[in-house]
Amino acid sequence: MAELDQEFSKAAGRPVAVTFTPHLMPMNRGILSTIYVRGAPTEELHAILAKCYDGEPFVHVLPLGVVPQTRHVRGSNMTMIGVAADRVAGRSILVSTLDNLVKGASGQAVQNMNLMLGFPETTGLAQVALFP
Q1: What is the DSSP secondary-structure string of 28-77?
Q2: pLDDT at 45
Q3: Domain spans of the chain?
């Protein structure tokens, strides 16, 4: 990272701090989002997300500094969110992951139907994940 900062700073003619997040994605399905945030302390951002999603059956906010992988949600209706501090002060990295086949349109349709018909939100969606 130091070399990237050095060379980009040289090219820009001013100090530059790079955020570089490589991803190794050996997966057959799923969505992994990496989101960069400035302005809110990482601990505060994590606390806000944890409070917001507390009690939601299909969203799990991981402990501070732990980030999810697509294999953690494969075949499920779960979304996992991780919050970690960036190496640059004042910046945070959020990582979220979901299975786009289950949590996508099909799982969301079942979840919405459950709510509309007065069934428990988790009906038909809390089973053990299937592979692939």
Answers
A1: SS-EEEEEEEESS-HHHHHHHHHHHHTT-TTEEEPPTT----GGGTTTSS
A2: 95
A3: 31-99
CA quadruple 95, 101, 102, 104: dihedral sign: positive
d(CA 63, CA 108): 25
What would the CATH number be for the domain defined by 31-99? Answer: 3.30.360.10
Segment (H or E) for 108: helix 105-117
- C-alpha 93/C-alpha 21 separation (Å) is 9
pLDDT of residue 129: 62
* Contact (CB, 8 A) for 103 and 126: no
Cα 61-69-59 angle, rounded to 5 deg: 30
Answering whether pTM is above 0.85, one says: no
Q: What is the mean pLDDT of each run of 10 residues along the chain (132 residues)?
A: 89 88 77 90 96 94 94 88 91 92 84 95 80 58
